[in-house]
Amino acid sequence: MAKVEILMPRMGESIFECTVLNWLKKVGETVEVDDMILEVATDKIDTEIGSSHAGTITEILVKEGETAVIGKPICIIETEVSESKSEVIDVPDSVIEAAAQEIEAQVSSITVAATIESPKITNSNRFYSPLVQNIAKEEGISQSELDTIQGTGQDNRVTKDDLLAYVKTKANPIQLTDIKPTTQPVPVSVDALDEIIIMDRMRKMIADRMVDSKRISPHVTSFVETDMTNASLWRERVKGQFKKETGENITFTPILIEAVVKAIKDFPMIN
Question: What backbone torsions phi and psi does residue 160 show, to the nearest 5 degrees?
């Protein structure tokens, strides 16, 4: 018998993690190669993941609702293939001692060089999601500074909220804890006729993307007054015939669309 770690397979260049929705196989069940063992959700699609080995599931490492990182183990399967025995070679003690001394000398030299020349790096192997990396880049946070942030996610991973809280604290280092907020929360009335619906995963994801869009991409509205007299007179003149031919009322919308199309053709950079 041999135990094999089943890794989360790659599902696209921009996908680095996913959420486990449902395990299709339980501990103790036998699976074959390519049998679907769990269902996961990414930012783009929900899909099923097949097993890369045949055997019996002995341990599930990522529970339902938790985040699975691409390339990391998600479960352990015990296979029927026995471990191969290594051939024993008789090596003289003198050869072993000489090799051990050489390795010890090399390790010592590497340790000294690393102590003198290498800078101290904390959490260099920590995983960061693309969203966290984009926020850090926009806020001017270096990789070394990012590594020092305490994370509250799985395996101490830095989440979006952790990074935003760090940026806020960095911008306002002095916290006035004694000052109470002047605004009071608005009371919400709930009675028996109200129905409270908990957001599902997709709605939560949409809400997060909307907030990110508002924060990352500045929203600007510009107002320009336009004389619509001729357009209004034209509409009044043709709306009767248009109604007779199509059965629909003509509005200002197609007029505005045509104006926008012509403007984009004249000034393509506005698109």
Answer: -60, -45
